[in-house]
Every structure is written in C-alpha cells, then in structure tokens.
Amino acid sequence: MSSVADRPLSSQAFERAKQLMPGGVNSPARAFGAVGGEPIFIEQAEGAYLIDVDGNRYLDYIGSWGPMILGHAYPPVIEALQHSIARGTSYGAPTPGENELAELIIELVPSVDKVRLVNSGTEATMSAIRLARGATGRDKILKFAGNYHGHVDSLLVAAGSAAATLAVPNSPGVTSGASTDTIVLEYNDAEALAAAFAQHGSEIAGVIFEPVCGNMGVVIPTTEFLTALRSLTREHGALLICDEVMTGFRLSPGGAQQLLGIEPDITTLGKIVGGGLPVGAYGGSAEIMGHILPEGKVFQAGTLSGNPLATAAGSTTLRTLRDNPPYERLEALTAQLEAGLNEAIQSTGVTANVARIGSMITLFFSEQPITDWSTAATCDIKRFAQYFWGMMDRGFYLPCSQYEAMFVSAAHTPEEIDATITAAREVLATL
Ligand code: PMP
C-alpha cells in the first residue's frame, strides 16, 4: 500500500490551487491545516471509495462531511440527476420537485409541518435565528461552545469544527455588535443553562444547539441537558432550534430529534437533505413558519433555492432512506468499528477512547470521556495527526481533525470495517 503515500499530482494541483484560492481551498478544513502536510486532490468517488488524482483509492470515512450516507455516485441519485438535467438546470420559479422534497422532509422529521429550502446549512441556521428573533421580538441567541452552525456572524463565537481546529473560534471580521447578542455556554451544562435563563430569560429569542454534537468530535447530550433545554425555553417563551444539519436523516429517518425524543420549535437541515448537492432547509410548525415572507414579514430569499437538480438528488436520497432504511446496517457496521477500535486501544495501551452514536464515531486521544468543549480541549492533537497520516497512508480517508466526526455509509462492508480496525491497530502501535 506504499503507493498511497505517493501523491505527486496532488502536490502539483495544490501548488497551483494556492495561487488561485486562499490556502488553496474553498473551505478551510480541507487544507489539512490541523494535521500538517498537503491535502489530497480527488478525481472521482464511487460507493465507499474516493479516488485521488494520482489514482490512489481510499476507503472514505467522511462522505463529503456527512451527505453521502448511501455512498458515492449512488445509481438512483445519478439517474434522477440525469433525468432532471436534460430539462434545464434552474428556472427561478416554483416546481413540483420542490413539493416532493418538502413533502418528504415534513413526512420524515417529526417537528416539521412547513419547510423552506435554502442552499446550505449556514443559510438554514442564519435564517432560523432571524426567524426566532422575528417571531419572538427578542434579540439574544444562546449557543454552546464547540457547536458549529456554519459561518453566520453571530454564531461564529466559540465555534467548533474548522473554527476550533484552526484556532479561530471567534473570527476577525465579526463585529462586536453581531456577537453581543450571543450568549455562549458549555454543552451538557444544564445548571449554566438554568442560570442564563434566570438572568436573561425575557431577552432570549432562541437556543440553537447540535442535538448530538459532531463538531468537536462526537459528543452525546445527557438526558438532563436535553430536558433542561426544552423545559427552560418553554418556560421563558424562547424558541428551541435543533441544528440537525449533520444528524438529520443520519441518526434515524427523522434525525436526532426522533431518536432522542426532542421536540424543537425550529429544525435546521443540510448535508443529506441534498443528497450531495447544495441544499439546506429550515422548518417548524405552520404557525412559526408563517412568519416567513411572503406569508409573514421575516425576509429570506434565494436565486437558486429549490434548484431542480438539488431537489432531484435530495428527494431520491430521502425516498431511499424511507423505503429501504439502512439504519440497522449502519448501526451494526459502526458498532463493529467501535468494538474493534476499543480492542485496538486496549491491546496497544494508547491513551484514547471512542464515542459513537449510530453511524457517527470519533476516536479521541484523551484519557477522559469528552462531554463538552473543556474536555475536548484535553485531546492530544499531535497524536491525532500521527494517527491520521498513518491511516491515510494505508488508504483510509479520515476527517483531518480531532474535532470532527467520522461517518460510516451504507456502502461500507463488514470486511472493510475489519480492514480499518487492522490498520488502526497497526497505526496505534506506532504511536
Ligand atoms: N450546522 C452544523 C451542525 C454543521 O455540522 C454544519 C457544517 N458542518 C453547518 C451547520 C453548516 O453547514 P454548511 O457547511 O452547509 O454551510
């Protein structure tokens, strides 16, 4: 497998890219900044594999950072796109395809009765907090450290994912005005939440949270935290915004809210909802969504929103997840990976632990379980970088940061999971 570490064409492409785009990339995590070394340029993807420009094949544990739950180039999605593309690529007018995707979202996600389609997860969360403020007439938004909700100014405070990885959780360019109305607390801290509501309850428009956090690695919420989120927001007239951009359609057909019994007022979606094309969505009760223009007064719009290619890929993906649910298979595959990684940690004596829920999993290089941003910060990120390159050079494509989740897709097989465990054991033994 030594050829996998040999990537001259990727190196050439990266040299050129750096002259063309900041850091050579269009989204910072892709630059591999946290793990050192150069990013790998991809030529093609099929099933559970990525193929780079040098012809190396990698077993993919990112799935485009979440969307590719059915695997890459899933034939029914490709067929739906081919059928759609022949009829034009954008009309800027309503289409039956938008009804179809909206119907599927409303059918699958328990708390959504009406939905608005946008073009990314960031647009979904940005619009959701505007809606929360518009609907309540209040200004403050409460979020949690290490949770990432896209690059919305007011939410780019103590942000997880690439913001945490690249040490800019609070970005230059975000005005103090944009962030003064953002309250930040530790994830899983029900007491701090109660204290914040005791102090600011009447000013809080909404609480936005990841129902399972994927953006500081996988962090699972406690029942106490989830209960406090719902009861305190209800008691104080604030809206609960469940950011299911990552967990939606991944942890169950109805997302984390269905799996964990959460009843949010507003849900944000992205990633899987577009089947690999740029789609986001936000939704809630008909009453709350009635505040959005042209029914209500809260402005939100988009030239390419509800794009026919995007709705074709999204609807085909959601229909497949509904009619042939892969969730039992994903659970079994990822449990197999979890058990194998735990066994490899034990046998090599490396200080690490594994967090998993459904097909989201993270190997944390820490001696303690990760429950919030303070504990996430205890991870040995140098060790992570060594582990990452050890796995990459063996043909396993992992997220390039300790603070991201790995995703298993329905295209993975038990044999491939076994091969991953064998490689992980080898790499851990070298650390
Ligand atoms: N919310 C969450 C929970 C996310 O994980 C992400 C992206 N990883 C976003 C919002 C932003 O989505 P996008 O990158 O599509 O703007």
From TrEMBL:
<dbReference type="Pfam" id="PF00202">
    <property type="entry name" value="Aminotran_3"/>
</dbReference>
<dbReference type="GO" id="GO:0030170">
    <property type="term" value="F:pyridoxal phosphate binding"/>
</dbReference>
<dbReference type="GO" id="GO:0005737">
    <property type="term" value="C:cytoplasm"/>
</dbReference>
<keyword id="KW-0627">Porphyrin biosynthesis</keyword>
<dbReference type="GO" id="GO:0008483">
    <property type="term" value="F:transaminase activity"/>
</dbReference>
<comment type="similarity">
    <text>Belongs to the class-III pyridoxal-phosphate-dependent aminotransferase family. HemL subfamily.</text>
</comment>
<dbReference type="InterPro" id="IPR015422">
    <property type="entry name" value="PyrdxlP-dep_Trfase_small"/>
</dbReference>
<comment type="subunit">
    <text>Homodimer.</text>
</comment>
<keyword id="KW-0663">Pyridoxal phosphate</keyword>
<keyword id="KW-0963">Cytoplasm</keyword>
<dbReference type="InterPro" id="IPR049704">
    <property type="entry name" value="Aminotrans_3_PPA_site"/>
</dbReference>
<feature type="modified residue" description="N6-(pyridoxal phosphate)lysine">
    <location>
        <position position="271"/>
    </location>
</feature>
<keyword id="KW-0413">Isomerase</keyword>
<dbReference type="GO" id="GO:0042286">
    <property type="term" value="F:glutamate-1-semialdehyde 2,1-aminomutase activity"/>
</dbReference>
<dbReference type="InterPro" id="IPR004639">
    <property type="entry name" value="4pyrrol_synth_GluAld_NH2Trfase"/>
</dbReference>
<comment type="pathway">
    <text>Porphyrin-containing compound metabolism; protoporphyrin-IX biosynthesis; 5-aminolevulinate from L-glutamyl-tRNA(Glu): step 2/2.</text>
</comment>
<dbReference type="InterPro" id="IPR015421">
    <property type="entry name" value="PyrdxlP-dep_Trfase_major"/>
</dbReference>
<dbReference type="InterPro" id="IPR015424">
    <property type="entry name" value="PyrdxlP-dep_Trfase"/>
</dbReference>
<dbReference type="GO" id="GO:0006782">
    <property type="term" value="P:protoporphyrinogen IX biosynthetic process"/>
</dbReference>
<dbReference type="InterPro" id="IPR005814">
    <property type="entry name" value="Aminotrans_3"/>
</dbReference>
<protein>
    <recommendedName>
        <fullName>Glutamate-1-semialdehyde 2,1-aminomutase</fullName>
        <ecNumber>5.4.3.8</ecNumber>
    </recommendedName>
</protein>
